[in-house]
Amino acid sequence: MKTIFVSGTAGSGKSLLSSKLHEYYTKNGAFAAVLNLDPGVENLAYTCDVDVRDYVDYVSIMQQYDLGPNGAMVMANDLIASKIDEIQNDVNKVNPDYLIVDTPGQIELFAYRSSGRFIIENLTSEEKTSIFLFDGVLINTPVNFVSIALLATSIRLRLNLPTINVLTKSDLIGDKLKDILQWSTNLKTLENAIAKETDGDTYALTTNILRGLNLGGFAQGLIPISNVTGDGFVNLEGAMSRILNLGEEVED
Amino acid sequence: MKTIFVSGTAGSGKSLLSSKLHEYYTKNGAFAAVLNLDPGVENLAYTCDVDVRDYVDYVSIMQQYDLGPNGAMVMANDLIASKIDEIQNDVNKVNPDYLIVDTPGQIELFAYRSSGRFIIENLTSEEKTSIFLFDGVLINTPVNFVSIALLATSIRLRLNLPTINVLTKSDLIGDKLKDILQWSTNLKTLENAIAKETDGDTYALTTNILRGLNLGGFAQGLIPISNVTGDGFVNLEGAMSRILNLGEEVED
């Protein structure tokens, strides 16, 4: 089994991508399954094979501990880690080639508290990778691009997994897509765009950080996809294969 | 009026710090008020002077739009922006010297969606500053320190405010406090600590980023505080004064 963790900010398209990846693998003859790790989600775009909501009940937590929505959400996310044995058992019963893990809606509860890293470290799998979603609609300025790139890097350090950076909603952002891809591949272009937009302090901070990120190999390789049109899925699958299958493509 | 936005990850101590800052200013003869911007909080450590829950009702949103807890939380946070006139009116009625703004529990809903920046830009105030909380308990390794520093920088770029970085829970972390303060002031110490903890790839990525952050003046000036013992408040107030009052201290 190979495991793919799908993460990104709330609304960036995690659940939809999980569903589309499942479709993509199935169509290409691989056995894929989806694990939902979000205890607070109401409706999912797919039928999950394993569902954390079977073990962690958000509404009961609110009632039982007399918590408000915030407190219950934090507690529900923290509780995921304590359910690792049940999750592992259910995953083993399904035993897919590819396990796609749809992570909680609010990424900070998963990434910056202990449960996310615990699940990632303790779920038994041959290979593991992470897909981080850059929400295309959020990246409306070069400084916002750098901000999300910093968040992605922060989460990559927390989760400690090989990471593929994906730009979602490529069908919604028109000409901006070309700009964003230039920013992600050409440091000079990005610096010029930032210079036009910002004052001296922000420019100095941003460009210095950028040089660090770029030296770390970060800015390269952002893959644009659309969950709606399916654009970019072949590239995404290729990037996953290089990590998960040591270069072998999914059979088709 | 000067405005102080208190932000940080869920559980980092935002509400408690807001309450303690209010106490601190009051004790020193200034007129401070607290604005709660979190629509999903149940119990607060303080009496708010202005409360977004008076305009945005999380439970009604769940029922009215048939949303689960995640969806309702996203929508409630997005709705904050539409209530700017009501919030501004109520703030004007109170008219404090210092307005302390306790931001939503999950920082990503505030910082990476549009409402946070909108509120920050549109709330009328003489001066504005942001305090970002590094949760002392989360920073248990040098890589986790860098991860939170990246998050802080990301949010600083999104919110576009002069920012004071504060380390909370200094009373809970014992000897670790000394390590963290060394990491935050001495790049070489931090790089050595990371080298001991990580493999080659993470080390290369982390140290390159660090150099960028450091050039951007980031790593300096982390102020340790304890909301419990009150340690560090004098330093925090000094840092705020330098931004808000152009160097004048609060009268006492």
TrEMBL record, chains A, B:
PANTHER family linked to this entry: GPN-LOOP GTPASE 1 (PTHR21231:SF8), XPA-BINDING PROTEIN 1-RELATED (PTHR21231)
GO molecular function: GTP binding; GTPase activity
Database matches in InterPro entries: Gpn, P-loop_NTPase
Signal peptide positions (record): none
SUPFAM superfamilies, per the entry: P-loop containing nucleoside triphosphate hydrolases
GTP-binding in keyword set: yes
Spans through the membrane: none
Keyword Cytoplasm appears in the UniProt entry: no
Entry superkingdom: Archaea
A Pfam family recorded for this sequence: ATP_bind_1
Gene3D superfamilies in UniProt: P-loop containing nucleotide triphosphate hydrolases (3.40.50.300)
Organism phylogeny: Archaea, Nitrososphaerota, Nitrososphaeria, Nitrosopumilales, Nitrosopumilaceae
Keyword terms of this UniProt record: GTP-binding, Hydrolase, Nucleotide-binding
Family designation: Belongs to the GPN-loop GTPase family.
NCBIfam families in alphabetical order: PRK13768.1-2 (NF010340)
Name used for this protein in its record: GTPase
